[in-house]
Amino acid sequence: MRVARRTPRGRERRARRTPRALLVVLGCLPGTLAVLALALCTRGIEDAVARRSDRVGAARPVAAHRAARPPVVPRSAWLDRATARTQPPPRYDDEVVAVFLHHTDSPNGYRCADAPRIIRHLYAGQTGDRSWDDIGYNFLVDRCGTIYEGRAGGIDRAVTGAHTKGFNHRTAGIAALGTFTSGVPVPRAMTDAIAALAAWKLGLADVDPRGRARLVSTSGLSRYKAGATATLPVLAGHNEGFSTTCPGAALTARLPEIRERAALLQGREPAPEPRKRAEAPRKPTTAVHGTPAAVHRKTA
């Protein structure tokens, strides 16, 4: 006689349900996997883009006040093989937060077509007589407003120059070709080009040309001892950081105008006009014939 084995009801129900549920799951599996894969893929792409954006944003924040880059003639236009010297690789800073303006202390009556020859002569003097590794200025501007690349390393990069003793880091040196002592006229084309160049270079770091910058001196031969922090104009003359008459009294006098022009090119608001001082009420003056009558009275 056979004895039938009893199966618990719960296990029997599960046994009955399992094939049916399994069929449902198996039937839906490809679609579910597709949707799941699509969702995971989309989420992964978004996360990857977000991480990349965070890294890019942290490394190079977008400047709010950028100016267009003016045309710059490359150094290959003035440096020939006969003059070029072997030099070490360029050195770089993280950004440019200030600009020093210079004059080259050379004759003013040159033809603009001769500017490359003049720059080549300056290069030969600085790398020869002074034993520098390259021309010190990052850029040079001639009387016609043409901008030339100076020191090697890349126009768009923060190349460490050799233009202002103690303050070559995080700055750019712009040299005006000529001598601009007191009373010497400064060409408008030159100042406009300097303003455009400073606006673009400082705009890469969103720096207002009319502001002030905190710079750390690296040499006691400057106006500040080594390691001291100096607060200088963002667009400054060479004489702000070093004891010199450069860039000359005439060009120094044009600096406020150059700063304002550069700020406007960055899209900044114009500087407010200085308030006129209220004139004090004038005291009434006594006319010649207004002498008190008592003075004219005849005495008996």
* Beta content: 5-15%
Strand order of the largest sheet: 3-2-4-1-7
Number of strands: 7
Q: Indicate the CATH architecture of the largest domain.
A: 3-Layer(aba) Sandwich
Number of helices: 6
Q: Report the mean per-residue pLDDT as an integer.
A: 82
Distance between the termini: 175 Å
**Order of helices and strands, N to C?**
HEHEEEHEEEHHH
- Helix-strand makeup class: alpha/beta
Query: Mind telling me the CATH superfamily name of the largest domain?
Result: Peptidoglycan recognition protein-like
Radius of gyration: 37 Å
Largest beta sheet, briefly?
Answer: 5 strands, mixed
Residue ranges: pLDDT <50 for 5 or more in a row? 1-19, 21-29, 31-58, 287-300
- Domain module tally: 2
Q: Would you state the CATH class of the largest domain?
A: Alpha Beta
If you consult CATH, what is the topology of the largest domain?
Lysozyme-like
Helix content: 25-40%
Give the overall form.
globular
Q: Overview of this structure, please?
A:
The strands form 2 sheets. A 5-stranded mixed sheet has the order 3-2-4-1-7, with helices on one face. It has a two-stranded antiparallel sheet with strand order 5-6. The protein is built from 6 helices and 7 strands; from the N terminus they run αβαβββαβββααα. It is α/β, with parallel strands linked by helices. It has 2 domains: 25-60; 75-265, Lysozyme-like. One of its GO terms (molecular function) is zinc ion binding. Residues 70-220 form the Peptidoglycan recognition protein family domain.
